[in-house]
């Protein structure tokens, strides 16, 4: 994932994902900041064909493993690579226990280096709808 994203307002998240309204702080998020994420309480709906109910929670942008004594580790654990997520100590427990979530976003920001300097470039859906980014 990118290292900078714009979270939607609580109203937009509630409307898009059918969750209860909630309190949220900042919308401009960097690793270590607190932001919203969605998860299924039990991983599935009431029957196998219905969509799972979603809970909205807030947590650190960047995974904080249970063994970590320093929450600043989130500044280094915001990006899990598919080829190493199952083995890296920071991610493997969450990966093997299917602790997945959806991170709602209005836009992500990536550096554009064409000028020789990092210029933040906003990337969003053309239709203005929310992004749903896979998370652990």
UniProtKB/TrEMBL annotation:
Signal peptide: none
EC category name: hydrolase
E.C. number(s) listed in UniProt: 3.4.-.-
UniProt GO MF annotations: lyase activity; peptidase activity; single-stranded DNA binding
GO biological process: protein-DNA covalent cross-linking repair; proteolysis
Top-level taxon of origin: Bacteria
Keywords associated with the record: Covalent protein-DNA linkage, DNA damage, DNA-binding, Hydrolase, Lyase, Protease
Alphabetical list of Gene3D superfamilies matching this protein: SOS response associated peptidase-like (3.90.1680.10)
InterPro entries, per database record: SRAP, SRAP-like
Pfam (any one): SRAP
Keyword check for NADP: no
Assigned protein family: Belongs to the SOS response-associated peptidase family.
Protein name: Abasic site processing protein
Organism: Pseudomonas amygdali pv. ulmi
């Amino acid at each position: 994932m990118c290292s900078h994203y714009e979270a939607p307002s609580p109203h937009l998240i509630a409307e898009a994902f059918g969750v209860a309204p909630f309190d949220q702080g900042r919308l401009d998020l960097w690793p270590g900041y607190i932001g919203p994420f969605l998860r299924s309480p039990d991983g599935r709906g009431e029957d196998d064909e219905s969509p799972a109910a979603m809970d909205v929670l807030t947590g650190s942008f960047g995974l904080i493993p249970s063994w970590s004594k320093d929450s600043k580790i989130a500044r280094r654990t915001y990006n899990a690579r598919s080829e190493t997520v199952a083995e890296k100590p920071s991610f493997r427990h969450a990966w093997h226990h299917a602790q997945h979530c959806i991170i709602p976003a209005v836009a992500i920001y990536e550096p554009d280096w064409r000028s020789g300097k990092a210029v933040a470039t906003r990337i969003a859906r053309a239709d203005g709808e929310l992004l749903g980014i896979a998370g652990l």
